[in-house]
Backbone:
């Protein structure tokens, strides 16, 4: 009787192993909302975006990738309008070299495009704003033959039409050496032209280059940012401050923390934490991801990416039923002060403030085929049968 009982239990256990393997559960993730809304962090225009990175997510394997993007920039386009009259012959090359130095710094910023325009004897050379090759484009102006009439206001007019609709900041930097002989009516007309550009949202920065009489210059650009510079001082030209005053300021000692609801902490592993700038890791004591950015430069966009991976065991009450927020709140601090947070404290339980997902069940094993389970179960049955025969031959059952 004992022999039969032990044999039955063994065979039943081995059979169940094979059957259970065939019904092994895995979990998928479904995106409910990516949450592409942008939240303002500071008055000068810094923003935060909390969204799902679909290109890096492996939803069928229960993994969803999250992006936290801090954007300390405004899309800015700068046009250089360069006088190409004969009066610029002695200083044009050194002026363009000085412009190139600052333009290269701007080119290394995010969301920054630059172009150039120059006119001589009614012929205009225009390069629309681009985010690369500005040095080459400025060098090309050196090779343009000068003319009796530098046509600086034709250049400004062309520059005003070169901006894209998407530009938040539109800036024309004017370099002029001679305005010629202008009567009061012409001065008033040119002043009105410049004021019209400003009314259209275009900022004007004007430089008088080695100009002996600046009366007309001062009148025409009365309400613009005006500067004067001698030929001997061109190498010191630096207009970066004029551009960056329209951009979000650089921010020091920046730290970002991301907190989570318990259903995320209990059912997901937080892994693959990668920061484009600074250092980031999961703090096991506070159950937060902490991102030390340190210095956030002006017109710089930085990103933190991490992955939520479904654990092997998941709360059954959540599966196929509940929409889950991927994180609870993001807080950005500057030193000891809170720069901003998303969502606001009184909106912290509002699902619209975070990307949302749902865990879905799946009866399969992505790493092993069903045939392998059947074969494994058959092998186990064979081993069990042989074991019973051996035990029986040695009369081991009689000892039970």
Residues:
């Amino acid at each position: 009787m004992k022999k039969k009982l032990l044999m039955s239990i063994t065979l039943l256990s081995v059979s169940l192993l094979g059957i259970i393997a065939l019904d092994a559960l895995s979990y998928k993730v479904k995106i409910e909302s990516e949450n592409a809304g942008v939240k303002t962090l500071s008055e000068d225009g810094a923003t935060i975006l909390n969204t799902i990175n679909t290109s890096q997510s492996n939803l069928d394997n229960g993994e969803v990738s999250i992006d936290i993007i801090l954007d300390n920039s405004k899309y800015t386009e700068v046009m250089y309008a360069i006088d190409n009259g004969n009066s610029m012959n002695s200083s044009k090359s050194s002026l363009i070299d000085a412009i190139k130095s600052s333009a290269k710094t701007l080119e290394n910023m995010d969301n920054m495009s630059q172009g150039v325009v120059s006119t001589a004897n009614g012929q205009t050379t225009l390069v629309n704003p681009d985010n690369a090759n500005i040095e080459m484009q400025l060098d090309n102006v050196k090779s343009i033959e000068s003319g009796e009439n530098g046509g600086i206001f034709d250049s400004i007019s062309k520059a005003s039409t070169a901006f894209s609709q998407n530009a938040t900041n539109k800036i024309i930097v004017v370099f002029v050496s001679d305005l010629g002989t202008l009567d009061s009516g012409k001065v008033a007309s040119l002043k009105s032209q410049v004021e019209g550009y400003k009314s259209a949202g275009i900022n004007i920065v004007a430089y008088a280059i080695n100009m002996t009489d600046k009366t007309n210059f001062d009148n025409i650009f009365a309400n613009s940012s005006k500067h004067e510079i001698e030929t001997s001082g061109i190498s010191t030209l630096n207009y970066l401050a004029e551009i960056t005053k329209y951009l979000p300021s650089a921010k020091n000692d920046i730290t970002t923390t991301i907190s989570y609801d318990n259903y995320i902490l209990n059912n997901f592993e937080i892994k693959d934490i990668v920061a484009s700038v600074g250092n980031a890791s999961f703090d096991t004591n506070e159950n937060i991801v902490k991102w030390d950015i340190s210095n956030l430069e002006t017109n710089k966009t930085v990103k933190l990416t991490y992955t939520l991976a479904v654990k092997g065991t998941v709360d059954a009450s959540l599966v196929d039923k509940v929409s889950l927020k991927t994180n609870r709140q993001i807080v950005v601090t500057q030193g000891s002060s809170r720069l901003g947070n998303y969502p606001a404290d009184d909106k912290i339980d509002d699902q619209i403030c975070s990307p949302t997902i749902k865990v879905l069940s799946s009866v399969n094993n992505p790493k092993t085929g069903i045939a392998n389970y059947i074969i494994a179960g058959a092998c186990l049955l064979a081993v069990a049968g042989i074991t019973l025969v051996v035990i029986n031959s040695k009369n081991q059952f009689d000892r039970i």
Observations:
- Residues 189 and 220 are 9 Å apart (CA to CA).
- DSSP finds nine helices and 19 strands in the chain.
